[in-house]
Automatic annotation (TrEMBL):
<keyword id="KW-1003">Cell membrane</keyword>
<keyword id="KW-0472">Membrane</keyword>
<dbReference type="InterPro" id="IPR050622">
    <property type="entry name" value="CPA3_antiporter_subunitB"/>
</dbReference>
<feature type="transmembrane region" description="Helical">
    <location>
        <begin position="255"/>
        <end position="276"/>
    </location>
</feature>
<comment type="similarity">
    <text>Belongs to the CPA3 antiporters (TC 2.A.63) subunit B family.</text>
</comment>
<dbReference type="InterPro" id="IPR046806">
    <property type="entry name" value="MrpA_C/MbhE"/>
</dbReference>
<feature type="domain" description="MrpA C-terminal/MbhE">
    <location>
        <begin position="99"/>
        <end position="169"/>
    </location>
</feature>
<feature type="transmembrane region" description="Helical">
    <location>
        <begin position="43"/>
        <end position="74"/>
    </location>
</feature>
<keyword id="KW-0812">Transmembrane</keyword>
<feature type="domain" description="MrpA C-terminal/MbhD">
    <location>
        <begin position="11"/>
        <end position="74"/>
    </location>
</feature>
<protein>
    <submittedName>
        <fullName>DUF4040 domain-containing protein</fullName>
    </submittedName>
</protein>
<dbReference type="Pfam" id="PF13244">
    <property type="entry name" value="MbhD"/>
</dbReference>
<feature type="domain" description="Na+/H+ antiporter MnhB subunit-related protein">
    <location>
        <begin position="193"/>
        <end position="314"/>
    </location>
</feature>
<feature type="transmembrane region" description="Helical">
    <location>
        <begin position="223"/>
        <end position="243"/>
    </location>
</feature>
<feature type="transmembrane region" description="Helical">
    <location>
        <begin position="86"/>
        <end position="105"/>
    </location>
</feature>
<keyword id="KW-1133">Transmembrane helix</keyword>
<feature type="transmembrane region" description="Helical">
    <location>
        <begin position="192"/>
        <end position="211"/>
    </location>
</feature>
Length: 341
């Protein structure tokens, strides 16, 4: 039964990928991309990677299609036919696919007991992580403690990506973004059903994000997943009630500051370890008992991760939505001027 489910999901993934490449309606491609993300999350669930499934469902099926749709509102939904580009893209995809398949031929079979990961890495984590870290979720032990340097790098990458989007969409203007964004026309959706449902859903979304944030030591979750879920709540609020309303709750300047604060929290935990005479990001220095120190350090750095991830996601939404509203404002003014002329 499990094999049949995996084959069905892979077949649906393949069909969805072909549909994304085949359609020339970019809005339909964005919808297919959301379906692809949801199918990927389901596939990760069948593999037992619940943490990855969390993130894929929120980002791949939620935020990414939304940002694609906001982009289409700026550049149009129809793809211009260009056979030469299609052939070039097909050749590039086929070449990369062939290289990936060739690389898998030298890899051990999935789940093989004699794989290097099973013989060297996994036994250490499975047998020793509870005594060294003291938390039941081995995934969190690996990501937040054993691989703390790598996770810190991932957080910095997310922060840098947010800065990149900020620099691109600001267009070199040194004015504050808050002043550049025009007011949301109409104040968001006027549909009573959407507004009532949003008011009902937003509070549980935020509560669930907090649960995922602070339950990562004992079950699937952590800062990355919680940050994305928290951002989804803000984005839903902005979509239904308007950009002005959500900016009054958390302004652009505040979100930018929080994005940096999250990285700073993570980095300062490592500095505290150094000041205590231990290695950088060695949480055992944060308390008299090494295991208690691990708990304190993991909670602190996961909080930093959640703050940065949520802030960057919200900031990207602000920037795309603001650029869209700015364009609509300019277009509306030009239309009024044309009628007046």
């Amino acid at each position: 039964m499990e094999l049949l489910l995996d084959i069905s999901l892979l077949a649906l993934l393949l069909v969805t990928a072909v549909a994304i490449a085949w359609t020339r309606d970019l809005f339909a491609a964005a919808m297919f991309a959301g379906i692809y993300g949801l199918l990927s999350a389901s596939f990760f669930m069948t593999m037992g990677a619940v943490d990855v499934a969390f993130t894929e469902a929120a980002v791949g099926a939620g935020i990414s299609p939304l940002l694609i749709i906001l982009t289409l509102a700026l550049c149009g939904r129809r793809q211009r036919p260009d056979p030469s580009h299609a052939v070039l893209a097909l050749g590039l995809v086929a070449s990369v696919g062939a290289l990936l398949i060739a690389a898998t031929l030298d890899m051990p079979a999935f789940g093989a007991v004699d794989a290097p990961a099973q013989l060297h890495v996994a036994p250490r984590y499975i047998n020793d992580s509870m005594a060294e870290i003291g938390i039941p979720n081995i995934v969190t032990s690996v990501l937040a403690s054993y691989r703390a340097f790598d996770t810190f790098g991932e957080v910095v990458v997310i922060f840098t990506a947010g800065l990149g989007v900020l620099a691109l969409l600001m267009g070199g203007d040194e004015q504050r973004i808050e002043n550049r964004l025009p007011a949301s026309p109409g104040g968001g959706s006027r549909d009573l059903i959407l507004r009532v449902i949003a008011k009902i859903l937003i509070a549980p979304i935020m509560l669930y994000a907090l649960y995922v944030q602070f339950h990562g030591e004992y079950g699937p979750g952590g800062g990355f997943q919680a940050g994305v879920i928290f951002a989804v709540g803000f984005i839903l609020y902005g979509l239904v009630f308007g950009l002005d309303a959500v900016r009054r709750v958390a302004g652009t300047a505040v979100v930018q500051l929080l994005a940096a604060v999250g990285v700073l929290v993570y980095g300062c935990v490592g500095l505290l370890s150094l000041l205590a005479g231990k290695n950088y990001l060695d949480y055992s220095a944060l308390a008299g008992d090494p295991v208690s120190g691990q708990h304190i350090g993991i909670i602190a750095i996961e909080l930093g991760v959640g703050i940065t991830v949520a802030s960057v996601m919200i900031l990207v939404f602000y920037l795309f939505s603001g650029r869209l509203l700015e364009r609509r404002s300019v277009t509306g003014n030009e239309s009024i001027a044309g009628r007046a002329g």
